[in-house]
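Practice problem: predict the structure.
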Amino acid sequence: MAYSYVQYTGDGSTQNFSITFPFISLSHIEVRLAGALQSTGYTTSGTTVSFTTAPASSVLIDIRRNTPKSSSLVTFVDASVLTQADLNLAQTQNLYISQEALDTANASITYSPAGYLDAGSKRLANLVAPVSSQDAVTLAYGNANYGGTAAANAATSAASAATSAASAASSASSSSSSASSSASSATAAAASAIAAANSVTSLGFSLSANNSWTGTNSYSITPTFPTASPGTNSTKGATTAFVAASFAPLSSPALTGTPTAPTAAGGDNSTQLATTAFIANAFAASIVGNGHTKLANGLIIQWGLYACTGVHGAYYSPSFPIAFPTGCLAVYNQYCDSSIPTSSSGGFCYTTTLAPTYYTFQWGWSTGGTGATNIRWLAIGY
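Answer:
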């Protein structure tokens, strides 16, 4: 546990951070962001450090005590009065300086009981380039000597050596008098090619016997491969020609066969592709005695025949074949096939309620009475 400092990690929103250790004066508190000592941009009050702007996400916030070490906070003189406060202050200064020294030692590279230096899972910074074979290597030195440019140079050397081998073999074939000498040259060139290839392998990738690449290096060269036949499904390298022949372009594709696509939800009015299922749902119709149809603009028309008992002044509520998703706009009623009572002369009905799943009308005869009749109705909604 640290005696004289505390560290936090910024989250981009928190501005106030606690000072968790004792101190003599707020002037002894130092604040660092990502290792840089701050002189502005924050205030201290009591045991809290408040930033004007919240430290960015992942930034290391270091709040540390730095008790004066070059001079004493209390000076004793002959014949002076010793007070408890002065003695405590002098002792506290010495205690805090000792604690700060201990914290510094604990945070440093230590010699472990196993016989090696331990950095305590901390990053090492400001290293110089290595000189001896056992020196530590920096990231810049590793990139320059073991990957990137070095890999490209090794690949170029391998290609040049292979070309030399081919030239030497051709020379051996064309000139029988110098066959022995050319063959020796070819052997030497082949050996050089193998050495260059081994150099490439040592940089993080290799070429196996069946010509498959292994490793995770990235290259600045532009290799070419034979183009596989359309429909090939293997680990063979895919050239740009194979991709162009096997997949439709994103812009104005010319599709063949029977392509499929997700079916949009009913009522979707966007640029999403309309499948046959979407069209069938959008224009679904039930052409029967009680039926419905859906129009492209979202309107729904429903119709039906309702058997009414024809009680004068009674209310009736026929149900729609399907529910209107939003609501019913209007209903038209007409009675037909009625058994009009001899004491009555004509019927009428008034629509009183429009609901998504039904409507209500009131039935009446011109002169009162009762007589069963059939009501034909037509409803429009969306």
